[in-house]
Write a structure and sequence with these properties.
Layout: E1 3-9, H1 13-18, H2 21-25, E2 30-35, H3 41-50, E3 53-56, H4 63-76, E4 85-89, E5 93-94, H5 97-109, E6 114-120, E7 132-133, H6 140-145, E8 163-164, E9 167-168, E10 172-176, H7 177-182, H8 195-205, E11 210-220, H9 232-251
Parallel strand pairs: 1-2, 1-4, 2-3, 6-11
Antiparallel strand pairs: 4-10, 5-11, 6-10, 7-9, 8-11
């Protein structure tokens, strides 16, 4: 059982090089960075020195398409096997090898197809990242943008043991390799946002399990760029929101 880690770089060169996370993980697992933007000399040196696979896309693609490309690379070039694991990891997430090993043990024990962990917004673990959620209601994200309290977020204080969940954020998702293959990866029609909700929903609806392991912790330094009204991230978010709901209305 091996672990392959997919990291998408989109002008995150300085962030990646300033962190010890990926070079530390690369000592134990296979790390692949796919650069959606032309990599800096610093990033090229960082990945080379750390033994990280750096691949550069021919043209910019969305989050799902980039991770699917990494999975194909792992399959065609690195010989990923059905019983291996494929981790989609944001470059702004810090996690330690001990936490990864704990997660892999839990995922194997619980036969989890997709696994999520307890993400926090700070290194002191005082503020939760709202990374596990119930299925969206159409107006819930809009209410959030307008400052209203959301009702589609799991209360992590109430969860002490591993549980099955509806979906988790794509900032950190661990897939059993064969499960990712069966799901045909992310739906590439989503450029950014909601591809995580979509793949978890498809997994649940086909009898797979999406699990949350509260004892495994990491830090997600999220920027929440989609909250900047009428920014390109906001527009991507809004278009993906409509696509997600329209797709699921047709399916049901």
């Amino acid at each position: 059982m091996a672990l392959f880690i997919s990291v998408i770089n989109h002008s995150h060169d300085e962030m990646i090089c300033a962190s010890d996370t990926l070079k530390t993980l690369a000592k134990h697992h296979t790390v692949v960075v796919r650069s959606n933007t032309f990599p800096s000399e610093s990033l090229v040196a960082y990945t080379s020195n750390a033994g990280i696979e750096l691949i550069v896309g021919e043209k910019p693609m969305g989050f799902g398409a980039n991770n699917n490309a990494v999975y194909r690379f792992c399959k065609e070039k690195l010989n990923i096997q059905p019983n291996d694991y494929f981790l989609v990891l944001n470059p702004d997430v810090d996690i330690w090898p001990e936490s990864i090993e704990k997660l892999l043990d839990l995922a194997k024990t619980y036969e989890s197809d997709i696994s999520a962990i307890n993400l926090y917004k700070d290194a002191q673990f005082t503020e939760y990242d709202n990374s596990i959620r119930y299925y969206h209601k159409l107006l819930s994200p809009i209410k959030s943008l307008l400052g209203y309290k959301r009702t589609d977020i799991y209360n992590k204080d109430d969860i002490k043991e591993p549980i099955t969940i509806e979906w988790a954020a794509g900032s950190f998702l661990l897939f059993k390799s064969e499960s990712y293959e069966k799901l045909k990866g992310f739906d590439e029609k989503y450029f950014m946002y909601f591809e995580d909700a979509d793949i978890c929903r498809r997994a649940n609806e086909t009898g797979m399990n999406v699990m949350y392991f509260p004892s495994v912790r990491a830090v997600h330094y999220a920027s929440h760029q989609n909250r900047k009204f009428m920014s390109k991230h906001f527009i991507w978010y809004a278009s993906s929101l409509w696509r997600y709901h329209f797709k699921n209305q047709l399916a049901h």
